Amino acid sequence: MNQSECFKEILNLKIDSDDIEFLNLLAEKHIDDLKPVQKKNPDGTLRPIFHHYMDFYLRNASDDYSDHKLFGKIATVVGKSSDYIYRKAHLALVPGSLPYHIDERECALTISFKKFSQPITWVDSDGLWMDEYYYENPVLVNTKIKHGCLNNTEHRIMFQISLEDTFAKVSNLL
Ligand SMILES: [Fe+2]
After folding, report:
1. What proportion of the chain, given as a percentage, has pLDDT over 70?
2. Which of 30, 113, 124, 133 has the fewest CB neighbours in a 10 Å radius?
């Protein structure tokens, strides 16, 4: 199989029933804390609020979840500290159609709560299809290539770690 420059499944990150229980608890507890995002451009200016993607960073919760072993597990796989992973950990919600866009972050380690009916799709600068992925396993997503899910009609809830290293650099570790 040729390696995609758009995503890479993280098969050595084993999510056990305790992790799943933890993720479900987070989603249950913080679903109302998710807010539309406003990120920055490379020059530091603010982007318009992006209502198609909502997030909530766990570091902003009144509870401290940083002791959970899931953060350490992820840290080992991507070569970062557990503290770093916790700072970048958040819940994400795509409530409907997600237009094509490029993120401020380089890439995102993503664990979905279920398999979605529509894939995330990547297109090149001419709008031509490059690749797609149905969330099934923990996956590293390249967020610097245009991506979206135009036909989404469900609430896509995910657990994500936003990473500042390039997709190429992180995927080499996996
Ligand atoms: Fe994105």
Report:
1. 99
2. 124
Ligand 1 is an ion; its neighbours by CB within 5 Å are 103, 143
User: Residue 19 Cα, ligand 1 centroid: separation in angstroms?
Assistant: 24
The alpha carbon of 143 and the centre of ligand 1 are apart by a number of angstroms equal to 5
What is the Cα–Cα distance from 85 to 62, expressed in whole angstroms?
18
Query: Is the pTM for the entire model greater than 0.85?
Result: yes
Q: Which pairing describes strands 139-142 and 107-112: parallel, antiparallel, or unpaired?
A: antiparallel
What's the topology of domain 7-29+49-173?
Jelly Rolls (2.60.120)
Pairwise CA distance, residues 22 & 24, whole Å:
5
Cα–Cα distance for residue pair 20/71, rounded to 1 Å: 13
In this structure, which amino acid lies at residue 55?
A: D
CA distance 78 to 163: 10
Q: With CA atoms as reference, report the closest residue to 90 among 67, 104, 74, 110.
A: 110
Q: Compute how many other C-beta atoms are within 10 angstroms of the C-beta atom of residue 54.
A: 19
> Cβ distance 77 to 104 under 8 Å?
no
* Backbone φ/ψ region at 72: left (φ over 0), alpha (ψ -120 to 50), beta: alpha
